[in-house]
Amino acid sequence: MSHLEVPVIEVSGLYKTYAHGGRPVAALRDVHLSVAKGSCTALMGSSGCGKSTLLNIIGGIDTPSSGTVSIHGRERKGRNESELALLRRREVGLIFQFFNLMPTMSVQENVALPALLDARPSGFVMERAAWLLKEVGLDHRLDHMPHELSGGEMQRTAIARALINEPSVILADEPTGNLDSSTAAHVLEVLLDVVRRNERTLLVATHSHELASRVDRVVHMKDGAILDA
Ligand SMILES: Nc1ncnc2c1ncn2[C@@H]1O[C@H](COP(=O)(O)OP(=O)(O)OP(=O)(O)O)[C@@H](O)[C@H]1O
Ligand SMILES: [Mg+2]
């Protein structure tokens, strides 16, 4: 097995059922997925098919009804809340569909935050945050507050923030969904470049055929299941 075939993310028999006023919604139904180290994989499928649910469970911000998730061969189950918080900060970088930026912190502070929470030296962290913001084309917005940004600028801030702790796994939920086509192409370039140069692993939910044409593998989902695992 070449190093490219070593699975970094392994999902097995995953179910997620939301209780919705007595009528359960099956968001994931028996999902099996293995994502190779250093690969870029796109999750595609129509709205409501379960992409965000799957990413949130892999990223440790939601829990499955049953089934297992392993990252680097270590199972998620049995980790306590503080271990899960560490996992979210260090092992995986999350880029959300909605960006969750801290409204009272500047763009640069938002990007730096996950590293500052890990007590890394603030001078180094702020410099790296500025460098990442330059990479996503926001070096002129370091001191701006989130409410002063356009949607696309918020999205690029969220991408820089996901990269600050140099995570081996990056989970992205429609990272270019709010951008005009030329900004989207640029952000995509930055994201794929960072992932590939550093042998990171990317799993990205998207409706973009442009993005899907640039990754190593496309996984299609329908009604909570994977069609072609
Ligand atoms: N908290 C919740 N309670 C009940 N149902 C939910 C909840 N969250 C999601 N769902 C349902 O689970 C299904 C999967 O939702 P999910 O957000 O994973 O879809 P998605 O593939 O990411 O869609 P989109 O492309 O629109 O982002 C949907 O039918 C949705 O209505
Ligand atoms: Mg979604």
Name its key features.
alpha/beta; six-stranded mixed sheet; four-stranded antiparallel sheet; 7 helices; 34% helix; 26% strand; binds adenosine-5'-triphosphate
Task: Explain what you see.
There is one protein chain. It contains seven helices and ten strands. The chain starts with 6 loop residues before the first strand and ends with a strand. It has helices at 51-58, 81-91, 107-117, 122-135, 151-163, 181-197, 209-212, and strands spanning 7-18, 25-36, 40-44, 66-71, 74-75, 92-95, 169-173, 201-205, 217-222, 225-226. Helix content is 34%, strand content 26%. A hairpin with a 2-residue loop joins strand 4 and strand 5 (74-75). Strands 6-7-8-3-9-10 form a six-stranded mixed sheet. A four-stranded antiparallel sheet has the order 2-1-4-5, covered by helices on one side. It has a single domain (40-61, 80-226), classed as P-loop containing nucleotide triphosphate hydrolases (Rossmann fold). Helix 3 packs across helix 4 (122-135) and helix 3 runs parallel beside helix 5 (151-163). With 229 residues, the protein is α/β, with parallel strands linked by helices. The chain binds adenosine-5'-triphosphate and magnesium ion. Magnesium ion binds next to helix 1.
Give the distinct bound molecules. Answer: adenosine-5'-triphosphate, magnesium ion
Strand element count: 10
Helix content: 25-40%
Strand order of the largest sheet: 6-7-8-3-9-10
* Count of helical regions: 7
Summarize the structure.
The chain has 229 residues and is of the alpha/beta class. It has helices at 51-58, 81-91, 107-117, 122-135, 151-163, 181-197, 209-212, and strands spanning 7-18, 25-36, 40-44, 66-71, 74-75, 92-95, 169-173, 201-205, 217-222, 225-226.
